[in-house]
Amino acid sequence: MARRIVFLMLVAVTGLSLSGCLVAESKYLKKVEEADTLGREAATLQEIQRELATENGALKAQLAKVKEEAAGLAKDKEKLGADNKELEQSLRANTDSLSQSVADLRQKVADLEAENVRLKAEIASTQMAKEEKVREVSKTYEDLLDRMKGEISRGQVTISELKGKLTVNMVDAILFDSGRAEVKRGGEEVLAKVVDILKGVQDKAIRIEGHTDNVQIVGNLTKRFPTNWELSAARAINVTRYLQSQGIDPAVLVAVANGEFRPVAPNDTDEGRAKNRRIEIVLVPRDAP
Question: Residue 263, SS3?
Fold first, then answer.
């Protein structure tokens, strides 16, 4: 009985020892497994850490590049700001200049318009004056035609009007004796017919032109008139002096000698030479040459 009890006690003690060993081993294995797990996790975390470090380096490099680009953009912005300010100043100056130019042009346009108005009025006035002068010359022409119709019908006088120039052409025979330059009485009577009409002419010069044929002066007559120049000059001057003596203003009288050098007909016939020996009384504008 006692032995049995001892045996049971040994068995119990032995069981307890084995059970404890089993429990300790189980805990150890569990710890080992936990350690392996932790080791693997640590290795994974280390790998993640390396990847993050690499990524962090890349991000830092990217950040540095971005900062560099930002600095460049800031400089560009500053430069653009300066350029923009300069452009604004230039634009303002150009605008002021253009505004002044526009104002000047407007003033010039206004001045030109005023000048145009003045010129139009002046042209109208000049045209009216011109028309008045044309009417005056035409009336003088008609008066002369009426006053000298007898001489005209006999071919001693011709009267023409062209572009405001009126010409009274008198053959020398009705004014002078042959070879002489003094106006004869019959010639004075003919000239008297035009005096009153010439007195009424305004703003005209009265040009008395002496003409001859081409027959050269010979004999004793050359002592007074060496050439046809002198004869035509003396005749023109004597007619001019007669007109002055009749009250025509000498300031409007002009005596001109043409000699034989402005013929109106050929000098190879008596009729042609007779036409070339003449006195012309020409009404021209005062400023005409």
Answer: coil
Structure tokens at 154: 């006999």
Q: How many CB atoms are located within 10 Å of the residue 97 CB?
A: 10
159 near 169, Cβ under 8 Å? yes
Is the pTM higher than 0.90? The answer reads no
Classify strands 204-211 and 165-171 as parallel, antiparallel or unpaired.
unpaired
Burial tier of 75 (Cβ tally within 10 Å: 0-12, 13-18, 19+):
exposed
Output the tens digit of pLDDT for each of the chain's 289 residues: 655 555 555 555 555 555 666 667 788 888 888 888 888 888 888 888 888 888 888 888 888 887 888 888 888 888 888 888 888 888 888 888 888 888 888 888 888 888 888 888 777 665 655 555 555 678 889 999 999 999 999 999 999 998 778 999 999 999 999 889 999 999 999 999 999 899 988 889 999 999 999 999 999 999 999 999 999 999 999 999 999 999 999 999 999 999 999 999 999 999 999 999 999 999 998 876 6
Read out DSSP for 98-129?
Answer: HHHHHHHHHHHHHHHHHHHHHHHHHHHHHHHH
